[in-house]
Amino acid sequence: MELLPYILDLAGTFVFALSGAMAGVKHRLDVFGILVLSFAAANTGGITRDVLIGAVPPGAINDWHYLGVSLLAGLITFYFPAAITQRWSPVLVFDAAGLALFAVSGAQKALVYGLNPVMATLLGMLTGIGGGMARDVLLAKIPTVLRAELYAVAALAGAAIVVIANMLQLPSPAAALVGAALCFGLRVMAIKYGWRLPVAATRRRRGRDPGSNPQPPPEDAG
Amino acid sequence: MELLPYILDLAGTFVFALSGAMAGVKHRLDVFGILVLSFAAANTGGITRDVLIGAVPPGAINDWHYLGVSLLAGLITFYFPAAITQRWSPVLVFDAAGLALFAVSGAQKALVYGLNPVMATLLGMLTGIGGGMARDVLLAKIPTVLRAELYAVAALAGAAIVVIANMLQLPSPAAALVGAALCFGLRVMAIKYGWRLPVAATRRRRGRDPGSNPQPPPEDAG
Amino acid sequence: MELLPYILDLAGTFVFALSGAMAGVKHRLDVFGILVLSFAAANTGGITRDVLIGAVPPGAINDWHYLGVSLLAGLITFYFPAAITQRWSPVLVFDAAGLALFAVSGAQKALVYGLNPVMATLLGMLTGIGGGMARDVLLAKIPTVLRAELYAVAALAGAAIVVIANMLQLPSPAAALVGAALCFGLRVMAIKYGWRLPVAATRRRRGRDPGSNPQPPPEDAG
């Protein structure tokens, strides 16, 4: 039960690092910037989870493999970007795979540390979305997770499968596989078919009724 | 003395979550993005404080109520945004209320954990401004606190009241009330009357005197 | 061996706080915003390092001197910005000095806490680049470190000198001096001569060959 999250963690690290490196290549960062972004995209979710559950130093700091895997993915992307960026943006697929693997491994680690089911599910989701959020914040963009098609929902579903299977004492590897497949499938289908969660119905034109304020609300909170 | 900060924390969580959700609605995030932003705006300040004082797992991770209150505020905002956004931007008022409640509860928790008066005051301020900073960073904006009318000063004043009252052994609930009222009042008055702290007098035109460099300084640090 | 990192830390705090304050002045923040940015730029790297190695509360929270030095630098910059911003942007020099001092002191503290050589080097680099990243993220910009001339490489080199000297049991103060000088020199030379790390060769025009997709890849990952 402890080997599985480790392997999933490293696999997720690799694909998230690819996603971070691809975003860095797009933004014309230099090779070291790309490696920093690879590491940040790959490890921020796990590091945040570990700090929050009190597992310091975090695995990604204490264990060479996370660093090595992140750098490897960054270098591969740096030297062969064209092979990857051609045609359909592969960032989305790598991102979906990383999301799935991290949501599952994050939930498993939280369970190992004795968190209750709801919080283990949420920490799984956080592990999944944290890296992508860090990647986007570092590139001064609104994180994908806040806009994208079923992003966090997919992570939540994958993590929930793992936690529910644990409660029902079902075999952990199978649950991880099913959870990761569900998360990955949901996310990829959402991208392909443009599934989106609803957006709040702020009718900006509604200000026409008499007596209401015709100006739009101020753009900025400060 | 331990119940009071808890109640203040939950109230602050609710209003900051409203503030985060409103900002999310404005930026056309989907329902899950809005819930993530609600949670981040409401809990980042407290989580950061707890990690810094070594109280892990942080209250917001360990205790359902913070999550529940955040999601509730996010869903209310999602379903009834028009009622709130009409006329005068309410984000500012919610934000001021959250600032006041968090500055006070943050200072109280830091005192409970035995921090010295100055650092308890600063952690109160950090608790107050952390959530709003996270909300703005996630939306790729310069945080309100760095620009806005008496934002951090108000939080500092509210936290200082609590800490000073604690040093003078005055009753804690009254101090919390006075501190929160002072912070809220300062911030709302500053918004209403446009009170601002001074800005540094960088005279860009000053480069006219002979021998000086006519070009403006480079925009970017790198 | 414990006094040296402390003094280096305070010196690095001062220069990074200057760098944060200068960036705040450029973005027309008010005096409190400038002080917040001074503190964030000066202490985020060290606070992150301390949280990751389990040294909570972090030095910058527990010890008045960091706060005092940060505020002092912020106030100096606020009251005398013109003297500093004239001609060549001094942010870069302050930034390079802070980078050098923090990379060295960060590596030393990590060694004191018993981390292995590779991770101590990386934490030294993180201490060096963390503050500047926080400064830039708070200003909604892509961090300098991800683009700039030999930024993180310089920090890495400085930290590595300290760690290697420690392994060889060479005198610590001399190693710190050499490491800081190497880091500072590399960074300043890189700025002066425009040394840059290579950027990945994404040939956007390459999509001309038959059968390939003429559209550029989608800009956004979500």
How would you describe this protein?
Three copies of one chain form a homotrimer. With about 220 residues, the first copy, chain A, is mainly alpha-helical. Chain A has helices at about 5-25, 30-50, 60, 65-80, 80-85, 90-110, 115-140, 150-165, 170-195. The first copy, chain A, has one domain. The first copy, chain A, has nine helices and no strands. In chain A, helix 1 packs antiparallel against helix 6. The first copy, chain A, is globular and about 50 Å long. The N and C termini of chain A lie far apart (about 50 Å). Mean pLDDT of chain A is about 80; it is low at about 205-220. Chains in contact: A-B, A-C, B-C. The interface between A and C is large, with 50 and 41 residues.
What would the keywords be for this entry?
Trimeric intracellular cation channel family protein (chains A, B, C); membrane (chains A, B, C); transmembrane helix (chains A, B, C); transmembrane (chains A, B, C); 9 helices; cell membrane (chains A, B, C); 69% helix; 222 residues; mainly alpha; globular
Radius of gyration of chain A: 19 Å
Proportion of residues in extended strands of chain A: under 5%
- What sequence of helices (H) and strands (E) makes up the elements of chain A? HHHHHHHHH
Which structural class matches the secondary elements of chain A?
mainly alpha
Could you tell me which chain pair has the largest interface and how many residues each side has? Answer: A-C, 50 and 41 residues
* Domain tally of chain A: 1
What's the count of strands of chain A? 0
**What portion of residues of chain A is helical?**
55-70%
Shape of chain A: globular
Termini gap of chain A: 49 Å
Q: What's the mean pLDDT score of chain A? A: 81
The unreliable regions of chain A are 203-222
Number of helices of chain A: 9
Largest sheet of chain A: none
Oligomeric state as shown: homotrimer
